[in-house]
């Protein structure tokens, strides 16, 4: 990857930028759907079988009526990390609540064949040093990550109080008692001193609203509810149940890229229905040397995580410790993922340099397709024509190779705006019907906001005030964590906070922050609640500092990154996550008491 010091001249030498822009516009325009996000439908409702948990049988239990110190909604890494840090801060009764049958969040639900994390395990998997564990592979398999989540819950003693297969249905602050009353869909009524909401972002599977989708009589499921009873095998592959089946996979995003090589290997025939090709770079996964960790000084994981975060967001690093596809393309991602803008050059110079670097990267990615895929027509269809960060970059050493198999057919649906319709027995694109026995949807997820923002989880704060009413004009938080009028309630996620492709790291920093504030509140016998002025000031700050990426997004091919072509400004702390974490550390040492009110004097 070229550096920022390279001149326009040598970057632009072999790039016809006007022709490339025209090609990108053309490819975007033939994929834009007038319905935007309305083209999708929920995987729940009459598609009830998608909503079922295929991994854990439902168990009846008596409703709980008890009291805990902290109740954490969501048992993915955000919830687990916060619970772990609250345990370290001295809280005794900590209750995780999750709709899933166990901990793990996204790693609980997504168990499809080929699942791996595309961020290096040494910086993605939290608390490796605390637990004395190491991933077996540089890019860890999903099942190993799920087992790591279980190990965290065991290590911090989180299972005895946890409630699974349970959805929190209401939160109500009891002014007289200074605690929350939590109600669930299992009839529980639980009192909690603190409530933490960590509901994740890509959690609700979505389906394309293909005409006739409900008429298909073959077998069908979404990748996040993999049906191993039908396919056989495991996340390592060996899908013996597909050997006599004609299988369709719809979707070629980050999930499709991991699933398709396994289905291609085992199905009698695989049809891949593609609307937009992913940009697929080299992976180079390999086993990790178990001895490596012996030679590391304590604190190695924190240093490695900090180094990765700094490298991908354009902060100076002496040495790139990770050195992979993310760090080498940081210049292309940092603005569009983390909101970080290089202020050292003029806007025009920055934009043109970024565009030329982007063109070089995408040319490499397109050249790789020609190198790997034998059939020139198929290769042409697999080339992505958009800028690198318009969609989630993918990495695989097996995906493109799958299209050289005689039992695999790529069906491009760009000209028809996706699949035309479905029949009882197959998939129709244009005038052609492809009869299939099984249809697998790798069609992604609704970009979830916390149920607090959608209204799915009503929250009543001081004096019975509804949080959604207070947030009519947008969320009102200090640093994204807490709001006036809603004491001892904490939010995790990217709302008015920071963002990074290694979101597990962001969640880890949030967990530490929340635990530090709770520890201080315990020490002082206080409740946690920012003042209205501090929250208003933070909302103003975020609006001012957030990078405006709407021009870039509007020129992108549609996808969930740009609301299917309906762009909006994303509010995030654009000086970047490294600076945001510094800001939080400073705030903790100088201003932490600003959010504490002694219980007797509550506002
Ligand atoms: P995506 O939303 O990225 O992809 C959905 C796919 O379905 C796209 O290829 C889309 O095409 C296609 N699609 C949707 N509707 C139709 C239609 N009507 N006809 C044909 N195709 C259609 O979902 P994923 O599950 O792949 O990934 C979601 C996110 O999950 C990733 O971006 C990433 O953040 C995360 N993830 C992370 C991984 C990791 O290793 N860390 C691994 C896997 C996922 P089109 O592009 O044209 O809309």
Please provide a written account of the structure.
- With 603 residues, this protein is an alpha/beta fold.
- The chain has a domain at 67-188 and 199-204 and 447-598: FAD/NAD(P)-binding domain (3-Layer(bba) Sandwich).
- Helices cover 33% and strands 15% of the residues.
- The chain is built from 22 helices and 22 strands.
- Strands 2, 3, 4, 5, 6, 19 and 20 form a 7-stranded mixed β-sheet that branches. A 5-stranded parallel β-sheet has the order 8-17-9-10-13, with helices on one face. Strands 1-7-18 form a 3-stranded antiparallel β-sheet, with no helix packed on it.
- The longest helix has 26 residues, at 347-372.
- The termini are far apart.
- The model is unreliable at 1-5 (pLDDT under 50).
- It binds NADPH dihydro-nicotinamide-adenine-dinucleotide phosphate.
- NADPH dihydro-nicotinamide-adenine-dinucleotide phosphate (NDP) binds next to helix 10.
- NADPH dihydro-nicotinamide-adenine-dinucleotide phosphate binds next to helix 10.
């Amino acid at each position: 990857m070229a550096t920022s010091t390279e001149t326009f001249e040598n970057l632009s030498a072999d790039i016809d930028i006007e022709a490339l822009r025209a090609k990108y516009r053309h490819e975007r325009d033939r994929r834009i759907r007038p319905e935007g996000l309305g083209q999708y439908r929920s995987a729940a409702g009459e598609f009830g079988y998608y909503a079922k948990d295929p991994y854990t049988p439902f168990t009846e239990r008596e409703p709980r009526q008890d009291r805990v110190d902290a109740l954490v909604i969501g048992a993915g890494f955000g919830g687990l990390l916060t619970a772990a840090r609250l345990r370290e801060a001295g809280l005794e009764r900590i209750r995780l609540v999750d709709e899933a049958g166990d901990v793990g969040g996204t790693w609980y639900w997504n168990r499809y064949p080929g699942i791996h994390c595309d961020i290096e395990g040494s910086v993605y998997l939290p608390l490796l040093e605390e637990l004395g564990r190491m991933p077996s592979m540089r890019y860890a398999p999903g099942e190993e990550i799920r087992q790591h989540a279980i190990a965290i819950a065991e290590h911090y003693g989180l299972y005895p109080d946890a409630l699974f297969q349970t959805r929190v249905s209401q939160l109500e602050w009891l002014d007289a008692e200074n605690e929350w009353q939590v109600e669930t869909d299992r009839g529980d009524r639980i009192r909690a001193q603190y409530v933490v909401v960590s509901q994740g972002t890509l959690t609700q599977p979505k389906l394309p609203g293909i005409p006739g989708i409900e008429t298909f009589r073959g077998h069908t499921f979404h990748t996040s509810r993999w049906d191993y009873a039908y396919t056989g095998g495991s996340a390592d592959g060996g899908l013996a149940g597909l050997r006599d089946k004609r299988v369709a996979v719809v979707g070629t995003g980050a999930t499709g890229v991991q699933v398709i090589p396994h289905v291609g290997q085992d199905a009698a025939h695989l049809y891949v229905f593609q609307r937009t090709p992913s940009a697929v770079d080299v992976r180079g996964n390999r086993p990790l040397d178990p001895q490596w960790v012996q030679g590391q000084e304590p604190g190695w994981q924190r240093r490695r995580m900090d180094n990765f975060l700094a490298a991908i967001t354009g902060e100076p690093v002496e040495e790139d410790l990770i050195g992979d596809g993310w760090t080498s393309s940081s210049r292309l991602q940092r603005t569009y993922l983390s909101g970080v803008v290089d202020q050292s050059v003029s806007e025009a110079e920055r934009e043109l340099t970024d565009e030329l670097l982007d063109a070089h990267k995408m040319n490499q990615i397109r050249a790789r397709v020609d190198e790997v895929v034998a059939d020139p027509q198929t290769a042409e269809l697999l080339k992505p024509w958009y800028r690198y960060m318009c969609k989630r970059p993918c990495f695989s050493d097996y995906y493109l190779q799958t299209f050289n198999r005689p039992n695999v057919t790529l069906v491009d649906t760009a000209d028809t705006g996706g699949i035309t319709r479905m029949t009882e027995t197959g998939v129709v694109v244009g005038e052609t019907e492809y009869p299939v026995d099984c249809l697998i949807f790798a069609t992604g997820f609704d970009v979830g906001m916390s149920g607090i923002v959608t209204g799915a989880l009503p929250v009543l704060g001081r004096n019975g005030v509804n949080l959604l009413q207070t947030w009519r004009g947008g969320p009102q938080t200090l640093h994204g964590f807490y709001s006036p009028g809603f004491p001892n309630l904490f939010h995790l996620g990217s709302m008015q906070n920071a963002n990074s492709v290694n979101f597990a790291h962001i969640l880890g920093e949030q967990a530490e922050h929340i635990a530090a504030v709770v520890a201080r509140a315990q020490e002082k016998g206080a409740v946690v609640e920012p003042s209205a002025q501090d929250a208003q000031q933070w909302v103003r700050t975020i609006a001012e500092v957030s990078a405006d990426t709407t021009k870039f997004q509007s020129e992108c091919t549609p996808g969930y990154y740009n609301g299917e072509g309906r762009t909006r400004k994303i509010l995030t702390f654009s000086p970047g996550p490294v600076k945001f974490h510094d800001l939080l550390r400073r705030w903790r040492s100088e201003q932490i008491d600003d959010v504490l009110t002694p219980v007797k004097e509550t506002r």
